[in-house]
Automatic annotation (TrEMBL):
Belongs to the intradiol ring-cleavage dioxygenase family. Its EC number is 1.13.11.3. It comes from Brevibacterium linens. The keyword Transcription regulation does not apply. Residues 56-67 have a biased composition (Basic and acidic residues). Signal peptide: none annotated. Keywords: Dioxygenase, Oxidoreductase. This is Protocatechuate 3,4-dioxygenase, beta subunit. It is an enzyme of class 1 (oxidoreductase). Coiled coil: none annotated. NCBIfam families: protocat_beta (TIGR02422). GO terms for biological process: 3,4-dihydroxybenzoate catabolic process.
């Protein structure tokens, strides 16, 4: 028999002797999930329709769609009624007070929070927090959290098989300066899998939390890295249908921030109000 020929299997022994058959018979919960191709086709369809709508005179969308179908869980938990504007109460016009004594000067460096150095690409992320008129938002709390370089959070719900770095907590915070500036030194996070569909991966990102100068400016958002191949495949990123609005979530590599033989530098400004406001995520998003 040549190597290209096959014979009929022996039905009396194959079910017991073939590990391939046994492996195929064992299915996990992800086997029934939809494919990336299915999700990508939906994303492309929404993108095409959005471009046609804008070309026809529709106002561009700068915030994510709350019922973005490729982001499967948003269909079940998005608001079903239109929001109504109400004048904020007095208490909502003032943010919590954070003094310099409340935050340690080393909390913005996520690479020195343990006994040893974390593993991965060391980076610095800097930028300014601005209002809708381009004015700096001073002395305001900025918090970040992220996965480690392997794409793993230190969280009991994150159990995918990537290593936990004992020298990396993934959390930090700082106060903006008089010019609205902030700076974090950290490790570039890795992409990680999530359960939206089969073989679903989130692009590498850092979560940012800001209070702003008012409770009405409260924001939780995500910063991404330039050139990520997962952008086109990610329903959370793509739920912002306007390309220019999506691009405002992507940091810019800055060689002036980069330090010789030490770290890579990125710049990312955050706008709390106005037409160019940075996209805001819900607090329980991935």
């Amino acid at each position: 028999m040549s190597q290209h020929q096959t014979s009929e299997p022996d039905e009396t022994t194959e079910a017991f002797d073939s590990p391939t058959v046994v492996a195929e018979a064992v299915k996990g919960p992800d086997d029934a999930a939809e494919s990336q191709a299915t999700l990508s086709a939906e994303i492309d369809g929404i993108e095409t329709q959005y471009k046609q709508d804008v070309a026809g005179g529709k106002k561009p969308e700068t915030q994510p769609r709350l019922d973005y179908r490729p982001y499967r869980s948003s269909i079940l938990r998005h608001p079903t009624k239109d929001p109504r504007h109400t004048d904020p109460e007095t208490i909502e016009l003032f943010s919590p007070a954070f003094g310099h004594r409340d935050i340690g000067t080393l909390e913005s460096d996520l690479t020195i929070q343990a006994d040893g150095e974390p593993i991965g690409e060391r980076i610095r992320v800097t930028g300014r927090v601005l209002d809708g008129e381009g004015r700096p938002v001073r002395n305001q709390l900025v918090e970040i959290w992220q996965a480690n370089s392997a794409g793993r959070y230190i969280h009991k719900r994150d159990q995918h098989p990537a290593p936990i770095d004992p020298n990396f907590t993934g959390v930090g915070r700082t106060l903006t300066g008089d010019d609205g500036s902030y700076s974090f030194t950290t490790i570039k996070p890795g992409p990680y899998p999530w359960k939206n569909h089969h073989n679903a991966w989130r692009p590498a990102h850092i979560h940012f939390s800001l209070f702003g100068s008012e409770f009405t400016q409260r924001m939780i958002t995500q910063m991404y890295f330039p050139g990520d191949p997962l952008f086109a495949l990610d329903p959370i990123y793509q739920s912002i249908t306007d390309q220019k609005a999506r691009e405002r979530l992507v940091a810019t590599y800055n060689h002036d921030i980069t330090e010789h033989e030490f770290l890579m530098g990125y710049n990312w400004d955050i706008v709390l109000t106005g037409a160019n406001r940075t996209w805001m995520e819900e607090e329980d998003d991935d």
